[in-house]
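Z., the sequence and structure:
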Amino acid sequence: MKALLFTDLHGSEKTLKKIFDFISNPANQIKMMLFAGDFVNMGEPLEYQKKFIQLHTLNSVPLFWVPGNNDFGRSYKLMMKYLPSVEGRVEEYQNHKITGVGGSPASWSGEYQGETGIKAEDLKDSIFLSHQPPPGLSNLIKFDKQDTITKKPHFALRATRGKQDTIKSQIKNDQIPNQNVILSGAKNFNTTTMKQFSYAPRIHICGHIHNQWGIGYIGGTKVVKLAASYLGFAAIMDLETLMVAFIEL
């Protein structure tokens, strides 16, 4: 079972056609769509949101999404009426728990009240969507590689002054996650760390920074940072193994 991961459409008609052509092709075997926000630009145009909805109604692939910092106003209201986002709540689909937070600041709209927090226990073992990347994420690798027996990640290697140095994601902030924290880490693996990581998502999918992409790890959580789809990029994820392949649409 495969999912198409995409983000930051920003009103691109060309990308919209490519997205739905891709998922409509039986050879691609896409059974789920996961979108990390920014359908449009500054809440407009409404016609683009209408076209997205029209194309999705013609396709049976389930969609799970969170709003981006450009998703507010009437386009946001229209999309929420058609299909509520998973922001601040949990959806169950074929043994997968899906939740998330959005990225629209309240100051950009008098009607949308900003990111809705989620309880730490709702994060546990979830597929977690956010528009913005989590704090502490660095040194993204450009390919997915995982020990299929122990399920532990292999860290990427890079050349540094002729030598090979292991790259690890930096873990910061020793606070246990609460409703206002997406994901955090501790400097040392102590009791606080173990308690906090017990609430960690299985995988975290995010966008927002258009030209940044790759895979990183915070604790045991795989973080998939997507490049903007309006630039022609997306990813495919195997929902059983969580292995990810970045693609050009």
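The longest helix spans residues 13-24. The CA atoms of residues 177 and 183 lie 6 Å apart.

Let me know what you think.
H.
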